[in-house]
Amino acid sequence: MRARWASARESFWFLPTALGVSAMVLAQLLVAFDRLLVSKGLTDLPLLDQLSASGGRAILTAIAGSVLTVAATSFSITISVMATTSSAYGPRLVRNFMADRANQLVLAVFTSTFLYSLVVLLSVRDQQDGDSAFVPTVAVHVAVILAVLNVAFLVFFIHHIALSVQVTTLQTSVRNELVRVVGQVYEDTEGRGAAVPPAEDGRVVESDGAGYVQYVDVAALRRAAKSADSVVTVLAGPGDHVVAGEPLARVVGVADDDVDSAVRGAVALGSARTPTQDVRFAVQQLTEMAVRALSPGTNDPYTAASAFDGLAAGLCRAVQAAPVARGCLDDEGELRVVMPWPGVELLIDDVLVAVRTYALGSPVALHAAIGLVERMEDCAERVTVRSALSEQVRELRGAYDATEPLDADAQPVRARLDAVSAKLAVV
């Protein structure tokens, strides 16, 4: 349920739907309020001009038509921007535009104003309609206020979309997602403990669908495992791809169909990876921005350098955290769920393999990547993390020596690699 809620909040339809329904309800309430005022003879209200039926219809028609036109034009621009950005920095960043609350809010305001005006327009009557004339004065004036607000939102939207296409804004958004998921996976140790190796004698719960694991509801699994006095070992963690019939988890304990159903219900599958719990995907997004910036078609090493700087915000926190606790305990301290959280060593490998593959020919990006390694070395205290960093630095030095001549321009890179390698040798 939580995964579906998160998916809905990241869609373009949820907020416009919620505000649209609210706008139609508000329109009906204000029309009813206008009818009440007419029945009480309170038609001469301060600050509200009396309107004829034709005048009210003209105002509401103008507002509804213009707002819908502006909404269509504005979001055709958004789609164009999304296409351009995805081609330059990666198609997976389109999700950031869709999840942007400001974009959703602007679309919601435009569409809800249109729906509000449409509902109020239906209530306008004149003598020619066969009924007594009725113009919802309060509701029409509220429509005018909403139209003014729409102009303000249009100006805000133009400003926001101009900011959102800047690479620094994109990198900040992705960096913040990385920091959040690193805190969730590596730093939030409440209710966690050591995990025993997965038992081989438990029954396997298989997937009934295909897709990427986007979210695992650990709390729901813990409750189900406790009720059945079992231990659930999740085999397909966030970011893994499964097809129907492949294992999702292994359950050790009393056979209980409710636990099997809870496992399938707690593992949310989708068509794409998301950074909600998938820390490797969060790292991959910034790494991909760096890689694409270094492609011959883009040739923007400074964007790659800033992407490596952004990675430091999350990776430095990850390397200085305690070893990731994969066990999830119940209130009595009993192990109930084992999660396959990735070790920080995998994150280091993901980034530095990309550096070794794509950044050797760009001194600007390479120096930024070495700076990232130096920052992680300053934060890393665990032997396993320092060993992983040391191994990657040796691989990077070997790859650089194989591709670059032994001239003066290459000496600063080699000197920095040797210096950080010497530091990593000290435990």
Structure write-up:
This protein has 427 residues and is α+β, with helices and mostly antiparallel strands. The chain is built from 15 helices and 9 strands. The model has no long low-confidence stretch (mean pLDDT 85). A 6-stranded mixed β-sheet has the order 1-8-9-4-6-2, covered by helices on one side. Strand 8 (327-329) and strand 9 (335-338) form a beta hairpin. The protein has helices at residues 2-9, 14-39, 53-89, 94-99, 101-122, 137-164, 167-187, 218-227, 257-266, 279-293, 301-320, 344-358, 363-379, 383-403, 411-424; strands at residues 192-193, 203-206, 211-216, 231-234, 241-242, 247-252, 267-270, 327-329, 335-338. Among the domains are: 2-165, no CATH class; 283-318 and 343-424.
Strand-helix topology:
Layout: H1 2-9, H2 14-39, H3 53-89, H4 94-99, H5 101-122, H6 137-164, H7 167-187, E1 192-193, E2 203-206, E3 211-216, H8 218-227, E4 231-234, E5 241-242, E6 247-252, H9 257-266, E7 267-270, H10 279-293, H11 301-320, E8 327-329, E9 335-338, H12 344-358, H13 363-379, H14 383-403, H15 411-424
Estimated structural class: alpha+beta
- Tally of strands: 9
Level of helix content?
55-70%
Which stretches are low in confidence, meaning pLDDT under 50 for 5 or more residues running?
none
Q: Main sheet, how many strands, which sense, barrel? A: 6 strands, mixed
Going across the biggest sheet, name each strand in turn. Answer: 1-8-9-4-6-2
User: What gap, in angstroms, lies between the N and C termini?
Assistant: 45 Å
